[in-house]
Amino acid sequence: MRTSRPARIGQYTALLAYLVFLAFPFLWLLSTAFKPPRELGSLHPTWIPKDPTLGNFRQAFDEQPLLHAALNSLLAALAAAVVAVLIATPMAYVVARRRTRLAKAVTGWVVVSQAFPFVLLIIPLFLVLKNLQLINSVPGLVLVYVVWALPFALWMLAGYVRAVPPELEEAAAVDGAGRVRTLVSVTAPLLAPGIVATGLFAFITAWNEFFFALVLLKTPEKQTLPVVLTHFIGAEGVADLGPLAAAAFLATLPSLVVFALIQRRITGGMLTGAVKS
User: Fold this and answer.
1) Which of 50, 56, 193, 257 has an alpha carbon within 20 to 30 A of 109's alpha carbon?
2) Residue range 20-26: average pLDDT?
3) Of 29-33, 193-197, 256-260, which range is least confident?
4) Cα separation of 245 and 240, whole Å?
5) Phi, then psi, of 108 in degrees rounded to 5
6) Which pTM value belongs to this model?
7) At what angle do helices 138-163 and 192-208 cross, to 10 degrees?
8) Which residues contact 166 (CB under 8 A, 6 or more apart)?
9) d(CA 186, CA 172)
10) What DSSP assignment string belongs to the chain?
11) What number is the average pLDDT over the span 144-169?
């Protein structure tokens, strides 16, 4: 069915407007990061800095331990993504292949749990971590991120497992492979795009997370990058705009780079997970 020319123009216009809407915050952040203080206080701001400078970046690194905070965020995000995927993959296989009431109940609980606000979870999580002596520690933060990422990872990977034809697993069983061998040698390789997509979403969620890190980490040398960014805001709520924009721009780069490198695999994984056999 062919689309009329006015309809195509309307579609492209809407798509362009959506792209501009998405790109505006990042472009304005980039512009602000390179502006000197004189231009930041101008009553007539411009998109392109008239006198671009790297002073905001130097000031940001001088005022706050950005590299150390970025390392803490990287370790916590990577560990949370890997552990969440390792736990969610066999769980998703069981939920997808066992069509029992328990599996349906687990799936329903996963969906409902996503509606819980952070405030309801932070108190019980804090008490659990306190009993485990994991308060103010990166491993404790990783444990929280894994718990928070597991429902979404389980729900997402279950869709990919359902897209894998059961006949392949039945053929492996005929050849003498057990459940674990079938999952590792047959199903897991076919789930690679979905595993990568799920791991990336878990990584980005942990990298950008602020609330749990703010509550659980008190020592400055253990704080993550989103928490350190708040240090550029003074006690009276006045932000040091130039260094803050420079630090925030640097904080967005890892997510953008990782997404750009594996976007094809993510797209393939999402399309695969959307098709049921």
Assistant:
1) 193
2) 83
3) 256-260
4) 9
5) -65, -40
6) 0.79
7) 150
8) 97, 277
9) 8
10) -PPPHHHHHHHHHHHHHHHHHHHHHHHHHHHHHT--HHHHT-SS--SS-SS--SHHHHHHHHHS-HHHHHHHHHHHHHHHHHHHHHHHHHHHHHHHH--SHHHHHHHHHHHHHTT--HHHHHHHHHHHHHHTT-TTSHHHHHHHHHHHHHHHHHHHHHHHHHHS-HHHHHHHHHTT--HHHHIIIIIHHHTHHHHHHHHHHHHHHHHH--HHHHHH--SGGG--HHHHHGGGB-TTS-B-HHHHHHHHHHHHHHHHHHHHHTHHHHHHHHHHHT---
11) 84
Supply the pLDDT for residue 275. Answer: 43
Residue 105: both structure tokens together: 């109940």
Q: Which two tokens stand for residue 114?
A: 């996503």
Residue written as token pair 């803490």: 72
